[in-house]
């Protein structure tokens, strides 16, 4: 009886060479996936912000079931400590520096005007004349991410419960307007009240009071300060944007104000009429 023939290793036995080399397939797959993983990591570190914004906008529209019809701008926030990569970046940095220089100039000019007014008030007090309240106690100037804020307390601007500007307030607003004529930024004038309700024939609520106060400031900025009307907008917040909680007479007086906001240029898209975009 013939003995069964033994399988040759080359013919695919369990211990054959082909079986021993199968691990190479898994190893090759692992190396390929690892390479793809590092390529993705590298690509994520080189983000194109414009493409990223377009993708985010497109995904948002898809998931909300809407069709994207607006080409929203990418808000560029270059870091002054980084070297610009091209001419466009250098141009953007120069524009931002120029804008900040204009804002600083406006701040310095208003501060100088306030200092001069307060100096005259001190001189009147020394001569026995009843001095006017110091402007430095009635005006707060500060910068936010959105731009420069000139906050005017209502004691300086209006009589209690009125929307009519005092003569001193008109002079101050004309002075502010003369400084803003050559500044190309958009301007928001925002009216605020405290939380004490008002209800009369002229002001059914604090909203009307805040809007009319802001509107009267705008009229002076435009008509006497010569700031172009297309650069100004009016907002009335009523009692709903307080600086501090309305707890007593002092905090309420802080919340009654009109803010003149010089917006940074990166918000131009949201202020420019749609026909000009």
CATH superfamily of one domain, called what? OmpA-like domain
Could you describe the largest sheet, including whether it forms a barrel?
Answer: 5 strands, mixed
CATH topology of one domain: 60s Ribosomal Protein L30, Chain: A
The percent range for helix content is 40-55%
The oligomeric status of these chains comes to: single chain
- Count of alpha/pi helices: 9
Shape-level CATH architecture of one domain: 2-Layer Sandwich
Portion of residues in beta strands equals 5-15%
- Please tally the β strands and state the result: 5
> What is the CATH first-level class name of one domain?
Alpha Beta
What does this protein structure show overall?
The chain has 277 residues and is α+β, with helices and mostly antiparallel strands. The protein has a domain at 87-276: OmpA-like domain (60s Ribosomal Protein L30, Chain: A, 2-Layer Sandwich). 47% of the residues lie in helices and 11% in strands. It is built from nine helices and five strands; from the N terminus they run ααααββααβαβαβα. It has helices at residues 17-20, 23-45, 49-64, 87-126, 154-157, 167-180, 206-223, 249-255, 268-271; strands at 139-144, 147-153, 187-192, 232-236, 257-263. It has a five-stranded mixed sheet with strand order 1-2-5-3-4. α4 (87-126) packs antiparallel against α6 and α6 crosses α7 (206-223).
Main attributes of the structure:
elongated, 5 strands, five-stranded mixed β-sheet, 47% helix, alpha+beta, 277 residues, 60s Ribosomal Protein L30, Chain: A, single chain
């Amino acid at each position: 009886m013939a003995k069964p023939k033994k399988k040759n290793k080359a013919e695919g036995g369990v211990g054959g060479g082909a079986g021993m080399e199968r691990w190479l397939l898994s190893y090759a797959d692992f190396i390929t996936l690892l390479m793809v993983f590092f390529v993705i990591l590298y690509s994520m570190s080189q983000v194109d912000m414009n493409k990223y914004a377009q993708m985010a906008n497109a995904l948002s529209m898809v998931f909300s079931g809407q069709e994207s019809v607006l080409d929203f701008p990418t808000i560029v926030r270059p870091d002054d400590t980084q070297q610009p990569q091209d001419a466009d970046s250098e141009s953007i940095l120069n524009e931002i520096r120029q804008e900040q220089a204009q804002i600083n100039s406006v701040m310095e000019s208003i501060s100088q005007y306030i200092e001069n007014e307060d100096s005259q008030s001190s001189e009147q007090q020394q001569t026995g004349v009843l001095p006017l309240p110091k402007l430095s106690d009635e005006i707060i100037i500060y910068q936010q991410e959105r731009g420069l804020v000139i906050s005017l307390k209502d004691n300086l601007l209006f009589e209690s419960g009125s929307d009519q500007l005092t003569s001193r307030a008109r002079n101050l607003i004309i002075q502010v307007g003369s400084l803003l004529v050559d500044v190309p930024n958009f301007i928001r004038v925002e009216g605020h009240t405290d939380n004490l309700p008002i209800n009369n024939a002229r002001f059914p609520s604090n909203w009307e009071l805040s809007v009319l106060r802001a509107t009267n400031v705008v009229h002076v900025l435009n008509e006497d300060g010569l700031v172009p009307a297309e650069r100004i907008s009016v907002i009335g917040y009523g009692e709903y944007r307080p600086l501090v909680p309305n707890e007593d007479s002092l905090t309420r007086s802080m919340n009654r104000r009109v803010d003149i906001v010089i917006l940074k240029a990166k918000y131009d898209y949201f202020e420019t009429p749609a026909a000009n975009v």
